[in-house]
Structure prediction request, 359 residues.
Amino acid sequence: MKTIFFTPGPSKLYPTVKKHLKDAINKNIPSLSHRSSAFQEIYREASRSLRRLLRVPKDYRIFFLSSATEAMERIVENCVVKNSFHLSDGAFSDSFYQIAVSLGKKAEVYRVADGSYLDCLSITVPAEAEMICLTHNETSTGVSLPLTCISHARKLYPDKLIALDIVSSVPYPALDIRLVDCLFFSVQKGFGLPSGLGVLIVGPRAIEKSLLLKKKHISTGSYHRFERLVQYDGKSQTPETPNVLGIYLLGKVTQDFLTRGIGKIRQDIREKADVLYSFFAKTPGFVPFADKRLRSDTVIVIEVTGGSDKLLDHLKEKGFVVGRGYGKHKKEHIRIANFPAHTKGDVQRLLKEIKRFKF
Ligand SMILES: *Cc1c(COP(=O)(O)O)cnc(C)c1O
Prediction:
């Protein structure tokens, strides 16, 4: 039986990954030197395609790291002398805050109760904060920040840097990248790829800030400090031996996304989200968790009356792996990923099986 992963990362592989993996082996990609011109071409292809897909401005750099978690650490290390500000609406946005604390920064956090509405305009960012850290899509609770929150933050605090986590929504949000200074994701969610690769997009103001830290003799890290990443990006390379296969696959899948069309990908996600939410709205035993105004289209979090364990076991038996609730919601919630890899047929088959489940 074929198993479909609806887990919010790692998740179902994008359908073309199998072919690209085979090609990669046949072309000896995993054996290539990361200093060879063949690798430089792979790097350029991935970078160029991402630039087109996400409309990355010319003066923004694209860096390849090991994960989104690493990106959080690099951002704080390179852009914050002392004070950062974090909006936390769940476990992932909270880990951004925890990383800043671990790095010895004076981080402040504004916490919102899980799943509840938050009015961005009512939040005051402390004057001393150098950077505002936001999470577009909180994967633990299924809350998605409206893009207007980001433009408001830019307008209200033009002198502060803004970092944005788009791990579990990319490439869905039609974001104006100029509104932020650092943007990051890992590839095992929306891109439907194997894990082990993070992408960090950095604007000129963030790079300038990292040079200011250096001037003040504050550590910005070692091999992955922005200065070094910029230097290597200039030769289409990374300081260390990177995930060459991952970068190759990312370039290929990004091209597949471009061929399918970003408009079509977004429309498909919107339509599948509508199908999912309307099913759960009319099916007894299920209640969408997040406030209606902030419900995520890419990670659908549903509270299951009487607990989610039995349903998840049942679905697994039938070939559908759905995400468990996160942290303290482990036994109450299910989390369904709605990524570009998931077809309308996948969603229909999943819902048919959920309908059959007897509580
Ligand atoms: C998964 C996830 C992360 C962490 O990604 P890693 O690749 O495990 O580092 C960070 N933020 C959000 C919103 C996520 O969903």
Observations:
- The pocket of pyridoxal-5'-phosphate is lined by residues 9, 67-69, 92, 135, 137, 139, 165, 167-168, 186 (CB under 6 Å).
- Residues 37 and 236 are 9 Å apart (CA to CA).
- The longest helix spans residues 262-282.
